[in-house]
Automatic annotation (TrEMBL):
Residues 310-349, 427-443 have a biased composition (Low complexity). Residues 300-349, 422-443 are annotated as: Disordered. Transmembrane segments: none annotated. Keywords: Coiled coil. Residues 44-149 form the DUF4200 domain. This is DUF4200 domain-containing protein. It comes from Eimeria necatrix. Residues 63-143, 190-239 form a coiled coil. One of its GO terms (cellular component) is cytoskeleton.
């Protein structure tokens, strides 16, 4: 012992070195006890990774449910839109047939009115001719009444001739005979003319009666046709009034469906923005990984093509306004229905493309997460291998005896639980064992 104390006094530098090494060792052990272990950090990282994967799976399931609901709503909307389109076509066909019938009835009524006007003008002309004939007949009857008795006419003519002969006191008997013969001939001619006039008046009266009867019959037929056309128009008006609320309901239902489709499109757009932001973060964190790159580039190309198409359509729309304004109402209605169907089909195709794009991005994000998990596991394994390496600390001590030799002590870092157990007092260990025995007995 005295020799050892003497050696210690002789080597103060070795003693200070050993004390420094022991202090460093104690400091390292304290740091190992205070800081969390690598296993705890690995477990925490695994827990966080498990939570992220679980949340991603839940979001994927919810997104799949949303997409399925959107598909079902799209199918229902397509079916309802087809039904509405068919009903609209039937209604337009009904309106077109009614318009054709009304046009045909109006044309026929106009033609009948023209024929009626022609017949009325002809009847007026015949009435005027009849009045003229009646005047002529009255004049001829007057003349006939004046010369109804040819003998009196002869006596009058003879008296006139005698008076003229007395006045003139000249003339021959041959001339007197000639005048009498002429008077007789004129009387016979007047009788024949009277008979002919009576026949003509009878014929004209019969023709006028026939024309009056035809005119009355035509007026009755025209009145019946006008009544029938008015009834048809009233029925068509009633049908239109009955179909109008149904069309309004269909229009309201169509607007509601379009609003719901717009809401679903907005929701899908929000989901797409969130997924795109997540994908950008994943791609920015690891640019070497190329998951979903093709879908990303294809979406960019499609967006650029859509922007170019919208610009060209807007430029061509201004020039086509003047030519489109010259079309008929039926063409405009058919074009509006076709444009609405094309716009709805375009919206549905855009929604389907967005859903497919979001699904592709979600698959890419899932692949990113799997790669991140593998990378983190590899890094954790490397770190664990580095931490499990033993730290050899050589403690040089002088042995007993005259020669003296050095012993290398291997000191390994013990896990935190083992160190805590080593630090426990025997009383604490006995208390823990008693508590465990009481729990087992209670169980």
């Amino acid at each position: 012992m005295q020799q050892k104390e003497a050696e210690n006094e002789a080597n103060p530098a070795d003693l200070s070195l050993r004390t420094n090494k022991l202090r460093n060792l104690i400091l390292l052990q304290r740091l190992g006890l205070e800081l969390p272990s690598d296993d705890a950090r690995i477990l925490d990282l695994r827990r966080q990774l498990h939570e992220v994967t679980a949340e991603l799976d839940f979001k994927k399931v919810s997104y799949a449910q949303v997409i399925e609901k959107a598909r079902q709503q799209d199918k229902a909307l397509q079916q309802q839109q087809q039904q509405l389109q068919q009903q609209l076509l039937r209604f337009e066909k009904f309106i077109a047939t009614n318009t054709e019938k009304t046009l045909w009835a109006n044309q026929r009524a106009a033609a009948e009115k023209e024929t009626l006007k022609k017949k009325e003008t002809e009847l007026k002309r015949l009435n005027r001719e009849l009045q003229l004939q009646e005047l002529l007949l009255q004049q001829q009857q007057q003349q006939l009444a004046d010369c109804s008795n040819p003998q009196e006419l002869l006596f009058a003519a003879a008296a006139a001739q005698q008076s003229s002969s007395l006045l003139q006191q000249s003339g021959s008997p041959q001339q007197q005979n000639v005048t009498l013969m002429e008077l007789l001939k004129r009387a016979f001619l007047l009788q024949q003319l009277q008979q002919q006039l009576r026949k003509k008046t009878r014929k004209s009266q019969s023709a006028a009666d026939e024309l009056r009867a035809e005119l009355q019959a035509h007026r009755r037929a025209l009145e019946a046709k006008t009544v029938e056309t008015n009834n048809r128009l009233a029925r068509c008006q009633q049908q239109l009034e009955a179909a109008w609320p149904q069309q309004q309901k269909q229009q309201e239902s169509r607007e509601q469906q379009l609003q719901s489709l717009a809401r679903t499109a907005a929701q899908i757009a929000k989901v797409l923005l969130a997924v795109e932001s997540m994908y950008r973060r994943c791609a920015a964190s690891r640019p070497a990984l190329q998951h979903g790159r093709a879908a990303w580039l294809q979406q960019k190309r499609e967006a650029a093509a859509e922007m170019e198409g919208e610009g060209s359509a807007a430029a061509a729309g201004g020039g086509s306004k003047s030519s489109s304004s010259k079309g008929s109402s039926s063409k405009s209605s058919s074009s509006s229905s076709s444009s609405s169907s094309s716009s709805s089909s375009g919206e549905e195709s855009a929604l389907q493309r967005k859903c497919r794009y979001t699904a592709a991005l979600l698959d890419a994000i899932f692949n990113f997460i799997l790669d991140f998990k593998e990378i983190s596991e590899i890094l954790i394994k490397k770190k664990k291998n580095k931490s499990n390496k033993t730290l050899n600390v050589a403690l040089e001590e002088q042995t007993e005896g005259q020669r003296g030799f050095r012993v290398k002590d291997k000191i390994e870092f013990v896990p935190t639980k083992a160190l805590a157990r080593a630090k426990e007092t025997p009383k604490a260990a006995a208390a823990k064992s008693a508590a465990a025995s009481t729990r087992s007995s209670a169980g």
